[in-house]
Amino acid sequence: MQKMLTIISNVLRGSASRNGTRVVVSARTYADFTPQATFDIKKCDLHRLEEGPPQQAVLTREEGLQYYRTMQTMRRMELKADQLYKQKIIRGFCHLYDGQEACAVGIEAGINLTDHLITAYRAHGYTLTRGGTVREILAELTGRRGGIAKGKGGSMHMYTKNFYGGNGIVGAQVPLGAGVALACKYQEKNELCVCLYGDGAANQGQIFETYNMASLWKLPCIFICENNKYGMGTSVERAAASTDYYKRGDFIPGLRVDGMDVLCVREATKFAAEHCRSGKGPILMELQTYRYHGHSMSDPGISYRTREEIQEVRSKSDPISMLKDRMLNNNMASVEELKEIDVEVRKEIEDAAQFATTDPEPPLDDLCNHLFYNDPPIEVRGTNPWTKLKSVS
Amino acid sequence: MASLRCFLRSGRNAVSVILRREFHKTSPAALQVTVRDALNQAMDEELERDERVFLLGEEVAQYDGAYKVSRGLWKKYGDKRIIDTPITEMGFAGIAVGAAMAGLRPICEFMTFNFSMQAIDQVINSAAKTYYMSAGVAAQHSQCFAAWYGHCPGLKVISPWSAEDAKGLLKSAIRDDNPVVVLENELMYGVPFEMSEEAQSKDFTIPIGKAKVERQGSHITLVSHSRMVGHCLDAAAVLAKEGIECEVINLRTIRPMDIDTIEASVMKTNHLITVEGGWPQFGVGAEICARIMEGQAFNYLDAPAIRVTGVDIPMPYAKILEDHSTPQIKDIIFSVKKTLNV
Lengths: 393, 342
Hints:
The complex is a heterodimer of chains A (393) and B (342). By secondary structure, chain A is an alpha/beta fold.
């Protein structure tokens, strides 16, 4: 039976690729693939917690394929942004997320789209997981009217529903996130806010002010420190007297999580979300992760760390490879299937890049718009007293 | 209902209101209300009207407000709506902006605007530039922040003088979907003003962006905001005895500025003096003069427009020095006479 199915599907695949149609591989699904498997995941270090997240995670085939697709899309999108930046089609600030995909994807898998999230400037990955499309993101990077912020925000200012960016001032997003959490509690909709910051921002005073108020008022806030070991060019040892970022919340319970393992991140996020929703107040997660690119496109990223270090992480801890290996070793997907996803992703990115490079820039009369919300149109002074520009809400 | 609320607030005023209401049912009853009470009324009414409105700041709840502006509100609305914060301006200003982004309408009170400097990043970078709404309530202390916040696109900045100004503008600020900086002058809190019947209504608001001509005149235009408006009116009263009639304009809003009202006045009087408590450089008066120069009113000026401002020094401590560091009524009178060449 198995052999016959294989022969049939090979024939189908052969004819389909001649026609250029997508191969229906589902004929193999029920018979051949493992529908779900349980994986051991790294134990989290705990702070002020009796118990932590489970040390095993169940992954279904559908989930696995979805995480793989999303992480691969994120990876390819960032690499495309790198390419466009070097071609000078993207300008200004551009902070790439490749290497950290498991964080964004794992977090989203642990919360709902109705929950809220805010992060700093390394935000393209989150814009995607929070409902943005590659098209809108790339078009925003190239400053076109089809961009997610109509071309007026750029890399650091992308927003979607329940995603508050994209923030340029280091650390400023943390009190904002607690404010969103306050609104969640006030409105009693059982929602929470995930509030992200980096190892560099973790030393900011306003973050400690926020820990205090979030804890006092039991705000449903998950503070997450994405520790990628470097704040710009400063390694954590040179920036922080204590690099145990998961303990820095002091009276706030904390966990340190393997940020390269999407399942570990997911389980930890589920655990943290449960903590918040049960009214216990805020909780802190430190995700240990790594960025392959430098801090931004103007940083080659090798003056403060070695190529060997980067290569080692790529070969031993890459989040996409880790998931791929798990799925293949447990017969949850085939090599061909994953390759096919790669092809589809590549096409999606190419189409998006095509759009992002051909879509026109925003019209000049959009210059002064969106100063205020819900206000009658006003006049704005131009560069000289005779130039009056129009601004609508 | 209005009389009941008045009764809870302050005995003396309430009794007189009730009496007047009994005997003079047909004619409108004016009322003496301090700026502090007007602000309190504004917040009370807006808290009642819209459950998304809440107040946070240092000592706003159980202490009844550092300057008693929020007196009685915590007792009435409780912990959820009136929140005492720790002494962490940057933190709670950010929390206020975040709550606004998520759909609430916070009133974020800084005990003095000096403390707002710790949070200026949140006000400017998070609130102003991010095109979301919030409302800011705060007091001036030893510095006028009109020029600082007035400089920034994306913010609205209002500066009330009288009790009616305070109430009407604050209510507009709370209802506005954008960040509004409210520059209250602490020295004005205890000053009573007559409040018209119209202003006593719960629906009374003053539009943001519109100046008010407080006194009509034909010889010279005095433009001012906040506490200095009172000084201008006092100076105008003295000058009237000498036959000089000043037109006094109360800006009410710093940004967006109502230049039309000022222009119309200057085209009538042909002379302009701006009066402010803040420092001269890059200030409100500088902006007004620049705009008048650039506009049609320039051709109507019979003398250069001049600015009367605070002295260009940090606020000194000794009382006599302090008194001399902001414009006095005699400074305004002197400037008017110089401008008119009398």
